[in-house]
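Much of what follows relies on a compact textual record of a protein's fold. A record is reproduced here so that you can trace the correspondence yourselves:

. . .
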Amino acid sequence: MSKTKLIENISEIGAGTRGSSLGIEALKIADFNLELGFFKKFNQSHKIINNNDSLLQETTYGKAKRIDHIIEVCEDISSNVSTVLKKNSFPIVLSGDHSGAIGTISGIKTANPSARIGVIWIDAHADLHTPFTTPSGNVHGMTLMASLNFDNAERRIHELDHSTQQQWEKLKKVGDIYPKISADDIVFIGLRSTEDAEDYFIIDNNLKKVSVEEVRRRGHEKVSEEVMEYLSSCDTIYISFDVDSLDCDLVSYGTGTPVPNGLTEQEAGGLINNFLINKKTSCLEVVEINPCLDNKQNRMAETALRILDRACSIIEKRG
């Protein structure tokens, strides 16, 4: 029986650009074209409710768009991730936009409430906004702050109405455990697009960052070794891989918020593989593939699929 279990979340309601709901289908098309047989490795996958029909409705929460529907999605993800982990299996979560990671982190914490979770955030963006600081109102930019149960209200540029405040509190408390993670246990890799409120939080909390330049200069083996040493006090490790961490010019613009000067496929894949060798690593999530924006047909999905396929092989070989 496969150690890995697939969770499919096509929700894109936390993003500002449409199309990431098609990311999983793009991966399946890539799998057919590349003949890797990735999806054949899974007897079935767990399908998450998506609430994407809410995109046709006007949102009442301008500073946290569709947060009420996102809470439902995250609760479902949390339940599914927790169930997989409690069966001693490894969840691979494929998500549309990055807001679903709130549910993934919740599920890891719910499965083992006393566990200290290390978060490896491979992403061009910090996702450290809140409804108080957001420039867009898109919840996929608030994922880590929700998981940290932090408002960053001292950097506020907005005041919240009571209803939005209530929904934000509910989102932070998905899984009924909060905070779920600590700022000391987050490592950013490939971060290169942030706003002032996020920068202040990173500096104030001395968050660990590893730049693309450092990965390239020192090599993914050395970097991954040092990241795992930094997180050595954690009980379990979660990898969140946003494909916008990849270099949009070298790879593809097939993601909602592409940023130049990112990682290569070999660098990102090498890091992920090295992290997965360590048995503390218990969950991998891949997010924000958007084939509607791909300037090279389906290149982003093909790249992500190759990384996923190698990652899955490593997980299956772990003792």
About this structure: The radius of gyration is 18 Å. The chain has a mean pLDDT of 97.
